[in-house]
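In this supplementary section we document a worked example of the pipeline. Step one takes a protein sequence of length 305 as its only input; no multiple sequence alignment statistics are reported here. Step two produces a three-dimensional model, which step three serialises into structure tokens for compact storage. The input and output of this example are shown verbatim.
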Amino acid sequence: MSVPTNAPPRWAPFVVLGVGLLAISFGAILARLAQAEGVSSLVVASWRLGLAALIITPLALVHARRELRALDRRQLGLALAAGFFLALHFATWISSLEYTSVASSTALVTTNPLWIGLAAFVFFGERPHRLMVGGIALSLAGSVLIFWSDSQLSGPGRQPLLGNGLALVGSWCFSAYLLIGRRLRAGLGLPAYIWLAYGAAALFLVSASGLAGANLLAHSATAWAVLLGMALGPQLLGHTAYNWSLRHVSATFVAVVTLGEPVGSALLAWLIFGEGFAVPQFAGFSLLLAGIYLAARGEARRRAN
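The serialised model returned by step three reads:
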């Protein structure tokens, strides 16, 4: 079988995925650093999406001008809905980092494959594969262990049940964003879609920050550097790497790679913030990741059939 001359080397997608995974793993760390500089969670989320949207604006205007001009009301409505849920995702997840550990927050916020599988069953009548059912059971058991383990911990400003709950809400919102985005993405190229989704989310977040009386501009030089790093690294480099790789490796493989995000974030939090693991928390963490892996495999097999 001949390989197209414009195809990248076989190793390239794996390197790109590795870089993307590392970039995304820094998301929680950078959010924590911004919070330590006195930037509120809503403002962190606003600038993560806002700076990303500003950076890609020239690309969208050059390569997607015709698509953007041809948008109909339905597409605009879907873009606003996708942006709304993406805004809620970042607002709740970044807020969760104020109250719980990086490990628990990132593990719970990446459970979206489970909720998407459940939504497909509830709303579209799609019968889940047995691996999906097993994955949901394992992940629920892992989530219970994480909640129980974190509830035993105490410390200044820690409210682990609230933080873990916010992380789960963030996962539900991201699931809604993905489900809406699939429909919108079917008729739009990647630059147009990303610009619309990020831009709409940024507008919602900036509006919410204004209503909350948060200061959007008066930050230290360190805080601005961290916010720019969030936009360039986790948001643009990380997500773009995943989207590019989908053309060269299977969606299932990419889904499995994304399971490395909570692991990478937890290791970075241990190195930078000294956050360790309680034994039940580690067990719940492992069950949760195993459950998401099974769910991803089950979804791939269901689609193959």
